[in-house]
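Support reply, case 0932

Customer input (verbatim):
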Amino acid sequence: MPWIQIKLNATKENAEMVSDMLMEETGALSVTFLDAKDTPIFEPLPGETRLWGDIDILALYDAEADTQFILSQIKASGMLAEGFAHKVEQLEDKDWEREWMDNFHPMQFGERLWICPSWRDVPDPEAVNVLLDPGLAFGTGTHPTTALCLEWLESIDLAGKTVIDFGCGSGILAIAAIKLGAEKVIGIDIDPQALVASKDNAERNGVAEQLHVYLPQDQPENMIADVVVANILAAPLRELSPIIKGLVKPNGLLAMSGVLDTQAEDVANYYRDELHIDPIKAQTEWCRISGRKQG
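Our regenerated output:
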């Protein structure tokens, strides 16, 4: 069935209260926050809801909902300015999951690596193919940060190497590393659902025995690897730099992404004391920082 969507503008000071009011008093089925100024939003810390300065709120209602009553309730709440801006739209009903699946196509990284949705045929059976069902966790290859890391992994010799995927998400980088020749890969993530997704995707690709996943508190002590990849965000890359550097063997390789071009030099400086940093690689506004640990 179709739906009604009401779009409102709010601020970070009142967005949470407006959201609660829409759910509790107007019967909204869901409420979504969008950045009204296209400002990048970064992954919040556990338990934190991080908002933008100016926020568009999208409230979804059943098509039979009385929009005039809803707008009168919003006005009566006094949470938004008199004559508040709003937009009412009717949304057609779609099979959103099927539409997303239809638009997720196989993607090539470097010369020999393909990331293929598990429901599509692989374009080149002789290539290195990773079959991916994103499922519960981040990482499909469509985001520039993942693409930058996949291209880097494809460009280096992983034969017989041990690799750590720090913030493994869906397991896309870990599985690609195994398919590219790594002997053993360790995936670490703070989200238990990411570990489930990584193991499921590893099973689908027939590499589950080579992938070992851990929550940070459960990982083996004194763990080090020939190659470490960390596709997370600038803040944790800075905060956790001593831990991440400690995972890399002498003369080992490290690549990091999830960093905007305005943050890249600052993040790289946290690693220059122990690594020789390569020229920073950019794709759109996102960057990859890579380097070799000093012997």
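We compared this against your earlier run and they match. Two observations from our side: The mean pLDDT is 87. Residues 140 and 180 are 17 Å apart (CA to CA). Please reopen the case if you see a mismatch on your end.
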